[in-house]
Amino acid sequence: MSSVNPSGANSDPMPGVDREIDIAIDAAPQSRFGAWLDHHLYSLVASLGRLLRKPWAALLTIGVMAVALALPLGLWAALNNVERFAGDVQRSRQISLFLKPEVKLERARVLAEELRARPEVGAVDLRTPEQGLADLREKSGLGDTLSAIEGNPLPSLLVVTPKGDELALAQSLEQLAEADLVQHDAGWRQRLDGWLRFGSRLAWVLAAMLGLGALLVVGNTVRLDIQSRRDEIGVLQLLGATDGFIRRPFLYLGACYGLAAGAVALALLTVADHSLREPLTALALSYGSHFQLQGFELGPALAILAGAAALGWLGAGLVTGHYLRQTRAGQG
Prior knowledge:
Strand content: 5-15%
Helix content: over 70%
Largest sheet: 4 strands, antiparallel
Number of strands: 6
Number of domains: 2
């Protein structure tokens, strides 16, 4: 649709409004679903076109949103890896049950089988006094000194790996008649669980704060786009277009910003994961562990993209709805 000025030259004072008006006019003879689908497709393509027409401004908005999303996501991934690493360190959870010196080896074997039958016990390793003495000679460097000692003063040892709460299991082992000494360190686990709970709460707080920041960034960007198209919106309102019809292109614009920001945030975290994986693997190997960093799998990655798109959609919806309510009130 074009207009003719007094000089006779064609002009188009409101680029982009023609297509919106055509859809609004053609909606009557078409089926409702066809018109609805046509406008959704056009809104999506038009939103992508607006992003491509202003690449630097779009990249700036997407970059700010991506950093705001990457920070809490990175903290969340780090906490998941720490929790997975803590669950893999079974030796730190093992309980050493030293039997009384008078307990015979046959009774120690029977006791080991009884403990393996318990549901709260994962595994039981029996170490005889001879094995304990051989390990002590090998690791302490006091082989000659130990050889001078007559007999074997070491008792039988049961190394118990718990399935659940090691503190409750250690307390029950202390009640055994054959038990002489029970050694375990549950304090580190309790402290680690406390730090993990704190880190998880911190990740949620950061996600809320930075998510609000991303919401405001999208809202401000969409607000500027609305201001540049207020004449088009006014014409559509005069033609009787509904608020949903007018709002839809801006919603898709916000969703495109959010989706692109989520993809960039995942790319940043992937780069960080690959840059840290090799030195961390080497460090873990030096401690005898095969721990490796684990990034986002396909399911969580798709959820992050969907959440980022929904965040952009919400920001655009809040700003557009506020503008349309103001214009409706002014017309009234």
